[in-house]
Structures are given as C-alpha cells and as structure tokens.
Specification:
The protein is an alpha+beta fold. The protein has a single domain (about 1-120, about 180-209), classed as Arc Repressor Mutant, subunit A, CATH 1.10.10.640. The chain is about 60% helix and about 20% strand. β3 and β4 form a beta hairpin. It is globular and about 40 Å long.
Length: about 210
C-alpha cells in the first residue's frame, strides 16, 4: 500500500512539475520553470473531469503536449535502466524500452491524477546537486493532505533549457526505485526480457481498463 501511495504521489509530482507548454528562455531559472508550469498543470487537472476519471487518451495528450517537452526522457530511462544496460543497448532496444516506459507512466498518471482535489504546492530553495555541478535541485512540498509531502526535483541543462530528469518523494529517488525493480529482471533476462515484461504488464493493464 505504501509503495502504491509513493508511486501515485511521484506521478502527481511529475505531472505538476513537467507540465505547461510554455516557451523557455536561457534566463529562466529552474525554480521559476517548476513554479510556473506546475501551477498551470495543477489547474488543468482540477478542471478536467475526464483526466480525473482516468481517460487515457486525454492523459496521453497531456503527457505529449505538456510534460515530455520538459523532460530529459533519455536521461530518465538511462537512470532507471542503469548506465551499463543502457550503454550496451541498441538504438532499437532503447526505443522499445522508452515506448513501454511511456505507456506505463501514462497509465500510472491516470491513477495519480484521480487523487488531485484541493492540494497545492509550496516552493522552497534551489540547491546545487552534490553529485554534479551542472545539476540543481528544486525543493517543494505538496500540502492539503494530512501530512505535507516533500518533493525534490532534479534538473539539468540541455542546450538552453532546464529539463527534469529525476525527483525524490519522501527522500526516495524515483529513478533509483525503478532501477531496483528493473535491475534483477535485466540481470536474469537481459534488456529484451525487461522490455517484454513491461509490454506484458501494459497489455494486461489495458485489458483490465
């Protein structure tokens, strides 16, 4: 139950932070990006009953238009798969893994968005990443529930834009969470085995509606 709640909060957080099809400039700070677009997406979710009800077509459109443009999806998938597995993957394997990863995330967004009601976001400080001088961490909290939920967003520069490549919720890194799930599968079955397993899960989820 706790794992499912963590995943739902993670996906809500991802949606809020990644959304907003706005033009970025070289001078826009990462905290300004997170604040502006998260507010827009939160309002969009609250206003769209179809998204709250889990309409996958509406959610997919939201993800494509307002979320993915602000995500370094290559870096996110590499982090989840692990550098070694990603480095050995063929272009076709990378594409198939990203495709199944995207489908999985969209279905999890459906469950997460259904929980959005009266929550809001408080914004904290921007910190330099201790691991990489080119990365920053934007600290926030989701409030409006029983207990505030701290969420930290990890951003890096890609060209003239800041893009999000990971986050942590309640002190748990999302990328590391997927890495711990995928690692044993990759070790036992290889990357093709992981892709096949994700595809089967997505197919089963689709059949269940």
């Amino acid at each position: 139950m706790l794992k499912r709640q963590f995943l739902s909060l993670s996906l809500i957080a991802l949606g809020w932070a990644y959304g907003g099809a706005i033009a970025q400039t070289a001078v826009q700070t990462p905290d300004a990006l997170v604040k502006q677009v998260s507010t827009e997406v939160l309002e969009s979710i609250k206003a769209d009953k179809a998204i709250q009800a889990g309409d996958t077509k509406r959610i997919l459109a939201l993800v494509d238009a307002k979320i993915l443009p602000h995500v370094d999806f290559d870096a996110m998938t590499e982090f989840a798969a692990g550098k070694a597995a990603w480095g050995q993957a063929t272009p076709d394997q990378r594409k198939r893994l990203q495709d199944e990863f995207k489908v999985m995330l969209v279905r999890q967004y459906a469950a997460a968005f259904a929980q959005v009601r009266d929550q809001s976001i408080e914004f904290g400080r921007v910190l330099k990443s201790p691991d990489n001088p080119g990365e920053v961490i934007v600290r926030t909290k989701i409030v409006g529930q029983r207990d505030p939920v701290p969420i930290n967003y990890y951003l890096q520069r890609v060209g003239d834009e800041w893009k999000i490549f990971d986050l942590d919720v309640l002190g748990i890194r999302l990328g590391l969470s997927y890495q711990s799930q995928w690692g044993p599968v990759i070790k036992a079955k290889g990357l093709d085995g992981l892709i096949a397993e994700l595809a089967q899960r997505n197919k089963s989820a689709a059949a269940k509606g």
